[in-house]
Amino acid sequence: MPQYFSEADSVDAVNARMGAEVSPRLRRVMASLVSHLHAFIKDVQLTQEEWEFAIEFLTRTGQICSEERQEFILLSDTLGVSMLVDAINNRRPSGATENTVLGPFHVAGAPRRAMGESISLDGKGEGCLFEGRVLDTQGRPIQGACLDVWSDNADGFYDVQQPEAQPRWNNRGVFETGADGRYSFLGIKPVSYPIPHDGPVGKMLVALGRHPYRPAHMHFIVTAPGFQTVVTHTFVGDDPYIASDAVFGVKDSLVAPFQKEGPMWRSSFDFVLMPLSP
């Protein structure tokens, strides 16, 4: 008998259409997607009007995307999907530095700077010394580790958001550790800022009673030969949005100390890298 579509047998009817030559992984992913999607629709008893609204929402999300803006990633971020995928793919034992979301404002090719140099080119904001060590899981310093760092400016914008108002490479730089594994650079104490919220995702947040803000943080990508790459932030612990990050990026282990010392701030944080699997 043919497998016709019905409300009761909707999942089986759709999944039965997959060809025999479909790869096992694609078969598993798509079969699960269909199963969960149909279960969701049946659970909430989705109306025709709600289905049409969802199609319009996804259409508008795609239409606002450009080379400079990826609204679907923003949607993934605000629904916690980006962080969940990252967590599943970067499980690490206690003590190893945890990952968090990359964010949309990383720019490859930032200038290499001398240890201790400043990344703040516009001279705005509260100065902050960032320092610490890059270690292996045995507590040994890692020589030749590269730290690609970037942050927003004192007004809460990254240089790529204000190409005419900020110097190129403002609050960005790459540093390489010596034999002692230590790093240090001057920047500014970062400030909280809203994610882009003038599109469909922003309207979704308003409808859900949510704000669009990220707590203040410094971005790091830490790499070293023979070790897993760490993509992470260090967060300012007393930020008003620390417990309600719009993209769910905060983890307890990534909240760093920020201490005022005279006119400057100081933030010390050690990165612990996992070796690559043999």
Automatic annotation (TrEMBL):
Matches recorded under SUPFAM superfamilies: Aromatic compound dioxygenase
Record protein name field: 6-chlorohydroxyquinol-1,2-dioxygenase
Tree of life domain: Bacteria
Location of the Intradiol ring-cleavage dioxygenases domain: 130-158
PROSITE patterns documented for this protein: INTRADIOL_DIOXYGENAS
Cofactor requirement: Fe(3+)
MF GO annotations: catechol 1,2-dioxygenase activity; ferric iron binding
CDD domains, sorted: 1_2-HQD
Originating organism: Bordetella genomosp. 10
Keywords: Dioxygenase, Iron, Metal-binding, Oxidoreductase
Entries under InterPro entries matching the protein: 1_2-HQD/HQD (IPR039390), Catechol_dOase_N (IPR007535), Intradiol_dOase_C (IPR000627), Intradiol_dOase_core (IPR015889), Intradiol_RC_Dioxygenase (IPR050770)
UniProt family annotation: Belongs to the intradiol ring-cleavage dioxygenase family.
Biological process terms in GO annotation: catechol-containing compound metabolic process
PANTHER family for the chain: DIOXYGENASE, PUTATIVE (AFU_ORTHOLOGUE AFUA_2G02910)-RELATED, INTRADIOL RING-CLEAVAGE DIOXYGENASES DOMAIN-CONTAINING PROTEIN-RELATED
